[in-house]
Amino acid sequence: DGGITQSPKYLFRKEGQNVTLSCEQNLNHDAMYWYRQDPGQGLRLIYYSQIVNDFQKGDIAEGYSVSREKKESFPLTVTSAQKNPTAFYLCASSSLSANYGYTFGSGTRLTVV
Amino acid sequence: GQQVMQIPQYQHVQEGEDFTTYCNSSTTLSNIQWYKQRPGGHPVFLIQLVKSGEVKKQKRLTFQFGEAKKNSSLHITATQTTDVGTYFCAGPGAGNNRKLIWGLGTSLAVNP
Lengths: 113, 112
Known about the structure:
The complex is a heterodimer. Chain A is mainly beta.
């Protein structure tokens, strides 16, 4: 079955450590996205990529970094520069050619202590 | 900048009552999408509306796209406890039709 996989589901890190969240899709989608969701809030775009080896900053990119070396993979690194990293992180993908909605992964809940 | 606003932010209904959430864009949209996020879950794509004045139904859910393509609504008839969750609308950003601008969502609670 095609889908988008995020791992791990829960992640705990100490303050000051970088952490990388995994996102893999086998939907052959061109575009991939990272969102952050805080309790009771909407979706805020961190980074997105529409093609391999290229990505753009979203609305809240500071303290985050990404790479897109393969079409299937779009890992997100939360660096120590991110002041408030505890949040629910959602990865999504979409086709650029088909007019259809986003497919989301099940998310990673990051807690920094 | 471009904004998508949703009202109400929260809605609490008795099971069997109807529910409507409204979505308004600051700009004309080429399409509008609706998603549902269950508590503790991830957003799931429900539908996309493209044409001016379009109305689509999915069982008890009715989606409308306004004539000016700047507003949309989702109406649920006779809510059930399985309808609980947050409903988001989203529209394409200007100049980049695959980057979505999201509303803040309407959280629906249903009393059995």
